[in-house]
């Protein structure tokens, strides 16, 4: 190396030291500061995936993406740059106590590769994973532990599909179940809490996939690849017993050689609601995916290689065929959106496109004959990925919250995010922007236009995660933290791979800090020269003839990325480098070779000090002594500069087992002594470790020799594990534990007691091999596995994961000014409670401001917390209060106003009228026209019946009856009503209801349908034909039925759509868990104010603040309704506050609270509330003191000896009974 290069490196080191000196506090300042050391908790950093991990990816509502990495589950946070936030592989069960003995005996996890992963929809931090043998594990992601273990049984072997299912149990309580489909055509329902099989049903047909109806939990769709059918449905799935009804089969047949339907959109295929018996019929069996459409009820998407069929099961017809353009590659996956009628198509080579529903009305001049043509336009399409031969796409998933992002999983363990952007929209820095798909795309864009929407939207790659590169690997941890460097120390791990790259990982954050493409060959070894630089060497495979190779030896600065080559003249055609050893004071570097003598280099000047004689050509192990003398000054005559050197020592062993002891000071190397080989040890010493007065020697047969230099004794311990490959002492003064690596595992020993502390052995304890070892901290061993995974474990070598609170303890952005990128599920329960409270009160001072409208603010809060149920609730509230048409789409068609609902039905019947091709479709079309009060078109369809059909005579009579009833003569109505009731009594409810509708008895028809348990049919009939009180009565009966079935959520939506807010609030109260007196009192207050249309007094603010503690949706809804009804000025104090409070108190006194479980303190509070108006006035005055400082609440729970822990925001009862809060 030239002198100029040496001067440059020296200058950089001096500059780095100068910068560090400027930022480092003085000795007096340091003595006053308490050292803050970044915590390193057990975790797993994954790398290249197994071939069985294909499709093992899923995205939760909380913004977490889970993937399968070999036999582990890795979770990344999609809201924070795809940072690793959880890795689950070793754990202890919380619920299955019968497995505790098994868990304590070894590593309890998947023993085989994970092939399926599904998040629980009702609990965003609960996850299910399945391996290739059928073992199922239910995880608690926040703690990284197992909730339930379900071992593989006969019913659970070869699982090919799983789905979470929320059903009501026998005691009418909703529980989470797991629906499992195995390759033996068996369907099994599992209890996820206890791991028990509830029921199993075997089918006699080949089932390939399952899909759950998003609008009805009892409906399930099976994908079938058979010669006689394509898919089947079941509509009576229950928790207390398997489906009793037989499957309803559907077949998709080709129209080649037959009369096609009149529609050109589905020209090539037709749908048959039956199995195909004829052998000459071409049934489609090469489908790729079959699933329910999430945004439109009763619709199914069938993906073929080059097109997608949209099927409407309510009219039993293929309503649209979506072909691919010529420049598009084949389809691999389809993901339908829930909040807009659109779906994403994932193609080969990583291309993703978004298709949006389009409709076009034809024959507009004649409204009665108007028809609708539908299609799905290509809104935007991303570019493909330029993949190498080694890279493949393993899976796709869609973000379920905003539905604008698609994640692609590559076989190298990386995740790529592609997101839809709307062009031309400017970012508003003054307000929070969380674009969901319904924010980007409006319902007006459903109307087909000549303007190409692809110019409006773009799909771009926005994020890519990090992963360990291809194996094999070598790892080396940076120097440990000390009292001198703790202020700027970062726990960095250098990982070298087979491609010549070196990755720098921050183990406290599980993030990739830097990646350097340094070498052209596989990295063979690494050593750190300090906290900000490392030396690495690489070489290709050794020539079998000459034993020579071309070495690459480089020193790299981490901060700048500058790389300097070493031994440039001596690396070509030389003996391969075996190892590097840097002295403890970072003064010297020893380079050992396979056949040549080792070299000693000066690290300060990067100059060669000495090449040892040929007698030291076959060196097997080298180690520096941690003991050194004080620094001495010497003058460099070439540069007239003063250099400082300390005397250091090192030992080497050769192939005969002799140990040589050398000392080095400056450029003087002296041989001190030569110790002959120990007769009990093998001549081949493979490794040496030296710390304090302890020297360890390991040989090729597994013997461990321990020298105690202080006591001058030695001891030999046979391990019987084969060759000892590497030994490393743990960092820290007085820490005499050391790692020892074998071919089949790892041991942890303690030289103080000279005993084995922990052991990991392949294949007894693990199904992977350890290729390299190191220490991340004094109690955190680091293992690099043959699978390409880095494991940070504990001292028992059993724990490879931690709770999310431990993993995120080192996050520095505690301000959370940017709410767009905050994942509140990563915070503690109390922190989430405080954040939500401030946002509800509109007291957020960091970053952009919140909306002033209470409803819009609650919608935004639901987005921030990824709370889809609240998001759905407030959208319906916005639609009902402000007539916001964009808030609801067809996924909420039952809560739309009657006009919009009727338009949807007209669109459906017009489409069916255009594509109908058989008698069954004609019959459905006739019934829908009759439902929509279009008797003339219904008569035309009846007269079109084929005379060869068995129902031809009945259809003709129906046509005559409908025509005769169009006159004003009502003399026949009593007879028709009698016939209709007789038909209904004999089970023909549909025919009887049609007769009642013909004579104007629609309300009676709806009631008869409800009595026959046909609730949806009655609601559809009511929304299309009834108005006013008659319509409200039918909907109210439906809501009461839902309440009796404990379906409070849908009942609340019905009452809100009817603008019956008092009923909605009362139903919300039944839905809430809280049963304390305060929520009920506040409910009466809010209901009284609303029902009497009084001016809102100052108690509104009081109710609003109290609602933050009880977190009751009913109370928050009360406040929003009050403010929306009386305007923004309604919070101003009125002159008659006390009068209104007295009236409210009278309402409270008339209410019975005998059925409430009250504590003595709550009973006393209730008595005071019921006593006088003066006391309730005092109660209102003291409300602000009750919830003054939410931060103080957090401090209380943090320091309290009771050790409060909330899995959810605290209820009023929990908060009021804490020590610091006073009532």
Automatic annotation (TrEMBL):
Domain WDR11 first beta-propeller: 50-354
Claim: Membrane is one of the keywords in the record: yes
Keyword Transmembrane helix in record: yes
Family matches, as Gene3D superfamilies: YVTN repeat-like/Quinoprotein amine dehydrogenase
Record keywords: Membrane, Transmembrane, Transmembrane helix
Region Disordered: start-end pairs: 1-35
Top-level division of the source organism's lineage: Eukaryota
Segments passing through the bilayer: 1106-1126
Domain WDR11 second beta-propeller residues, every copy: 491-635
Entry-linked InterPro entries: Beta-prop_WDR11_1st, Beta-prop_WDR11_2nd, TPR_WDR11, WD40/YVTN_repeat-like_dom_sf, WD40_repeat_dom_sf, WDR11
Biased composition (Polar residues): 1-15, 23-35
GO cellular component: cytoplasm
Domain WDR11 TPR as annotated: residue spans: 936-1070
UniProt protein name: WD repeat-containing protein 11
Source species of the chain: Medioppia subpectinata
């Amino acid at each position: 190396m030239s002198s100029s290069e040496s001067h440059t490196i020296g200058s950089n080191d001096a500059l780095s030291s100068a910068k560090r000196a400027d930022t480092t506090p003085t000795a007096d300042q340091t003595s006053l500061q308490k050292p803050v050391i970044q915590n390193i908790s057990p975790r797993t950093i994954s790398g290249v995936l197994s071939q069985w991990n294909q499709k093992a990816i899923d995205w939760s509502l909380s913004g977490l993406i889970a993937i399968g990495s070999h036999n582990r589950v890795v979770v990344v946070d999609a809201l924070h740059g795809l940072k690793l936030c959880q890795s689950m592989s070793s754990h202890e069960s919380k619920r299955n106590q019968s497995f505790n003995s098994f868990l304590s005996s070894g590593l309890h996890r998947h023993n085989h590769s994970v092939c399926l992963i599904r998040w629980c929809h009702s609990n965003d931090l609960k996850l299910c994973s399945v391996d290739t043998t059928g073992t199922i594990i239910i995880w608690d992601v926040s703690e990284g532990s197992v909730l339930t273990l379900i071992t593989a049984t006969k019913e659970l072997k070869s699982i090919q599909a799983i789905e979470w299912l929320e059903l009501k149990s026998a005691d009418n309580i909703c529980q989470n179940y797991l629906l499992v489909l195995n390759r033996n055509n068996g369907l099994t329902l599992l209890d996820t809490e206890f791991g028990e099989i509830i029921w199993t049903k075997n089918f006699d047909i080949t089932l390939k996939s399952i899909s759950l109806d998003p609008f009805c939990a009892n409906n399930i769709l099976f994908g079938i690849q058979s010669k006689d059918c394509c898919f089947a449905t079941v509509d009576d799935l229950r928790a207390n017993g398997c489906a009793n009804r037989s499957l309803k089969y559907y077949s998709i047949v080709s129209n080649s050689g037959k009369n096609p339907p009149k529609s050109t959109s589905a020209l090539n295929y037709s749908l048959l609601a039956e199995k195909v018996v004829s052998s000459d019929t071409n049934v489609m069996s090469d489908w790729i995916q079959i699933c329910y459409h999430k945004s439109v009820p009763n619709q199914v998407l069938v993906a073929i290689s080059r097109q997608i069929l949209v099927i409407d099961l309510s009219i039993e017809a293929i309503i649209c065929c979506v072909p691919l353009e010529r420049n598009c590659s084949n389809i691999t996956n389809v993901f339908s959106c829930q909040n807009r009628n659109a779906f994403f198509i994932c193609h080969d080579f990583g291309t993703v496109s978004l298709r949006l529903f389009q409709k076009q009305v034809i024959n507009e001049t004649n409204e009665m004959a108007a028809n609708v043509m539908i299609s799905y336009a290509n809104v935007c399409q991303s570019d493909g990925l330029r993949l190498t031969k080694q890279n493949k796409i393993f899976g796709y998933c869609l973000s379920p919250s905003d539905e604008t992002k698609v994640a692609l999983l590559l076989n190298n363990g990386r995740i790529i995010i592609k997101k839809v952007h709307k062009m031309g929209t400017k970012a508003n820095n003054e307000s929070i922007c969380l674009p969901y798909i319904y924010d980007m795309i409006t319902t007006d864009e459903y109307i087909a236009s000549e303007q190409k929407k692809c110019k409006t939207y773009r799909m771009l790659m926005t994020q890519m995660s990090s992963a360990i590169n291809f194996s094999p690997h070598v790892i080396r941890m940076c120097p440990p933290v000390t009292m001198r460097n703790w202020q700027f120390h970062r726990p960095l791990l250098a990982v070298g791979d087979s491609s010549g790259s070196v990755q720098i990982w921050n183990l406290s954050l599980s993030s990739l800090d830097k990646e350097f493409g340094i070498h052209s060959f596989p990295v063979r070894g690494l050593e750190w020269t300090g906290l900000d630089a490392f030396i690495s060497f690489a070489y290709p495979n050794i020539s079998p003839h000459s034993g020579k190779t071309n070495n690459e030896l480089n020193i790299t600065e981490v901060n700048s990325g500058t790389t300097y080559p070493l031994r440039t003249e001596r690396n070509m055609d030389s003996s391969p480098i075996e190892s590097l050893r840097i002295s403890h004071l970072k003064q010297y570097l020893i380079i050992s070779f396979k056949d040549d003598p080792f070299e000693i280099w000066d690290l300060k000047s990067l100059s060669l000090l000495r090449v040892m004689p040929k007698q030291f050509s076959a060196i097997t192990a080298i180690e520096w002594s941690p003991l050194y003398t004080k620094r001495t000054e010497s003058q460099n005559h070439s540069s007239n500069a003063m250099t400082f050197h300390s005397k250091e020592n090192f030992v080497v062993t050769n192939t005969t087992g002799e140990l040589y002891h050398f000392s080095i000071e400056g450029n003087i190397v002296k041989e001190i002594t030569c110790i002959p080989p120990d007769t009990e040890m093998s001549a081949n010493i493979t490794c040496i470790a030296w710390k304090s007065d302890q020297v360890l020697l390991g040989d090729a047969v597994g013997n461990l020799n321990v020298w105690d230099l202080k006591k001058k004794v030695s001891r030999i311990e046979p391990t019987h594990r084969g060759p000892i490959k590497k030994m490393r002492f743990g960092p820290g003064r007085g820490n005499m534990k050391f790692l020892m690596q074998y071919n089949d595992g790892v041991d942890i020993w303690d030289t103080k007691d000279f005993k084995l502390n922990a052991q990991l052995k392949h294949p007894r304890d693990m199904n992977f091999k350890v290729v390299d070892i190191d220490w991340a901290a004094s109690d955190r061993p680091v293992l690099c596995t043959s699978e390409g995974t880095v494991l940070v474990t504990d001292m028992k070598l059993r724990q490879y994961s931690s709770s999310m609170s431990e993993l995120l303890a080192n996050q520095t952005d505690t301000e959370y000014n940017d709410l767009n990128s905050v994942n509140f599920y990563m915070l503690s329960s109390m922190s989430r409670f405080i954040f939500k409270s401030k946002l509800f009160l509109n007291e957020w001072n960091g970053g952009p401001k919140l909306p002033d409208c209470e409803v819009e603010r609650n919608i935004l809060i639901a987005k921030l917390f990824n709370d889809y149920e609240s998001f759905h609730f407030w959208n319906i509230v916005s639609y009902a209060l402000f007539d916001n048409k964009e808030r609801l789409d067809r996924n909420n068609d039952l809560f739309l106003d009657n006009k919009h609902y009727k338009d949807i039905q007209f669109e459906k019947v017009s489409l069916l009228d255009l594509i109908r091709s058989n008698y069954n479709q004609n019959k459905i079309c006739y019934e829908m026209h009759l439902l929509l009060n279009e008797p003339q078109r219904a008569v035309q369809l009846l007269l079109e019946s084929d005379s060869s059909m068995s129902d031809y005579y009945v259809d003709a009579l129906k046509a005559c009856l409908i025509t005769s009833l169009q006159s004003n003569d009502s003399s026949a109505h009593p007879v028709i009503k009698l016939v209709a009731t007789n038909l209904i009594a004999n089970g023909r409810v549909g025919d009887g209801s049609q007769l009642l509708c013909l004579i104007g008895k629609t309300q009676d028809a709806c009631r008869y349908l409800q009595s026959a348990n046909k609730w949806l049919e009655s609601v559809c009939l009511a929304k299309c034909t009834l108005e006013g009180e008659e319509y409200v009565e039918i909907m109210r009966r439906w809501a009461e039925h839902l309440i009796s079935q404990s379906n409070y959520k849908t009942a609340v939506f019905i009452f809100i759509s009817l603008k019956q807010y008092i009923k909605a609030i009362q139903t919300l109260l039944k839905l809430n868990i809280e049963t304390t007196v305060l929520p009920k009192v506040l409910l009466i207050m809010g209901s009284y104010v609303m029902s009497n249309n009084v001016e809102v007094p100052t108690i509104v603010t009081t109710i609003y603040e109290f609602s933050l503690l009880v977190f009751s949706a009913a109370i928050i809804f009360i406040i929003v309704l009050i403010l929306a009804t009386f305007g923004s000025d309604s919070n101003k104090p009125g002159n008659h506050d006390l009068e209104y409070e007295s009236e409210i108190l009278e309402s409270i006194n008339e209410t019975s609270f005998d059925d409430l479980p009250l504590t003595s303190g709550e009973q006393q509070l209730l008595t005071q509330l019921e006593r006088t108006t003066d006391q309730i006035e005092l109660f209102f005055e003291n409300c602000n003191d009750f919830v003054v400082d939410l931060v103080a609440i957090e401090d209380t729970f943090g320091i309290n000896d009771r050790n409060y822990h909330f899995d959810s925001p605290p209820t009023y009862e929990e908060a009021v009974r804490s020590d610091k809060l006073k009532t």
